[in-house]
Amino acid sequence: RIAQRALCLDDFETMSRRHLPRPIFGYVAGATERNAALADSARAFTEYGFVPRVLRDVSQRSTKATIFNREWAAPFGIAPMGLSALAAYRGDIVLTEGAKAANIPMILSGSSLIRMEEVIAANPDTWFQAYLPGDATRVEALVDRVAAAGFGTLLLTVDTAVLPNRENNVRNGFSTPLRPSLRLALDGITHPMWSINTFLKTWRLHGMPHFENSFAERGAPILASNVLRDFTARDHLNWEHLALIRRRWPGWLIVKGVMHPEDAARAAAEGADGVIVSNHGGRQLDGTSAPLRVLPEIKAAAPNITVMLDGGIRRGTDVMKALALGADFVFVGRPMLHAAAVAGREGVDRAISLLLGELERNMALLGVNSLAELTPECLIRVGGP
Ligand code: FNR
């Protein structure tokens, strides 16, 4: 079985590099400009070392985490990733089914290619991430559609005021929609597993993929060109829009992409139930600090809401460091999509169980029984400025 060959999350990226056509691999794995934000997100974890405690009975250890009044099997979930169904056949469904089986949360991206109503049917605990145009009527219509579909948790991603400079997409010939070219055709031929199991199967069974949820007040497929126009209108978004959503949305509300303590405090004051400290996996403003570096101050500035983090989580020890520095929960992006791309549902199951296994084992080696025992005292700074 292909999935069993992966021994850690990074192995899925190595496998996916061979499996996916170059433009699609580049879209998933890449970032912006110099990839400095991406690199820093991973590096920050290496700047802390554990100080293990010994001779403590760790036989009762548990990885269970409760957020928003619900208990999950682990303190990690799957981050929202747009266009997942280009990399993996029915990507969003596969990811959310894997999350459901493991009892962890999965967040559906607003720029996914599968209708939100289908995804929530596969897993009623799926969360929804929205991109919004700066237009009040459409914001309200979107919130109503998400509520009617049955989602209980809504995220607003706020670090995307304009489209980022993804040079790698241009260099690799990635665009939405994918433009036919000789290069793309050759890429398809040299990556036959993806061409047959993802591309042709999608085309044959579901037709041409469309954005089904972007700015999704319309419940109908949206052409990529219209989505791009909506993206451009997004530079109007401001705190008033958050207040508007809070008045209309009855469920849990999370702001994703917060990096400054004052913004976290403002989100809390506007009635958000949580924030995700995130630099969008290094895919927006290049040179943004690693989320881990700003986490402690954000936790201090917003002590009464749920503080989550994503970016660069690849190991159980990364999850532990983020929790020790103040995160209540974390999310994992790219590795989950690479796993779904190379091995479908089995890949997702394997990725989740590898991460959970590492977390469980390394909690014991650190000498803790519960996530609550992960505190700053478990760590020392070992490098960096
Ligand atoms: C993303 N991310 C993202 N975030 C979001 O709020 N909406 C989206 O549609 C997307 N789309 C998306 C696509 C792909 C291919 C990737 C890799 C990422 C960002 C994502 O939710 C998350 O913040 C980062 O991926 C976390 O970093 P790691 O775990 O990938 O390092």
Low-confidence stretches: none
- Beta-strand percentage? 5-15%
How would you spell out the order of helices and strands? Answer: HHHEEEEHHEHEHEHHHHHEHEHEHEHE
What profile does the largest beta sheet have?
8 strands, parallel
Q: What's the gyration radius in Å?
A: 20 Å
Q: What strand order characterises the main sheet?
A: 4-11-10-9-8-7-6-5
Q: Cofactors and ligands present?
A: ligand FNR
Report how far the terminal alpha carbons are from each other.
Answer: 44 Å
Protein name: Alpha-hydroxy acid oxidase
Family: Belongs to the FMN-dependent alpha-hydroxy acid dehydrogenase family.
EC number: 1.-.-.-
Cofactor: FMN
Descriptors for this entry?
385 residues, alpha/beta, eight-stranded parallel beta sheet, two-stranded antiparallel sheet, 16 helices, 46% helix, 12% strand, binds ligand FNR, flavoprotein, FMN, oxidoreductase, Alpha-hydroxy acid oxidase
Describe the structure.
With 385 residues, the chain is an alpha/beta fold. The chain is built from 16 helices and twelve strands. It has helices at 9-19, 22-29, 36-46, 84-87, 91-102, 116-122, 136-149, 167-172, 182-190, 192-206, 224-232, 239-248, 261-269, 291-301, 316-324, 334-366; strands at residues 48-50, 65-67, 70-72, 76-78, 107-108, 127-130, 153-157, 252-258, 274-277, 306-310, 329-332, 379-381. Strands 4-11-10-9-8-7-6-5 form an eight-stranded parallel sheet. α1 (9-19) packs antiparallel against α16 (334-366), α5 packs parallel to α6 and α15 crosses α16 (334-366). The N and C termini lie far apart (44 Å). Ligand FNR binds next to α2 and α16.
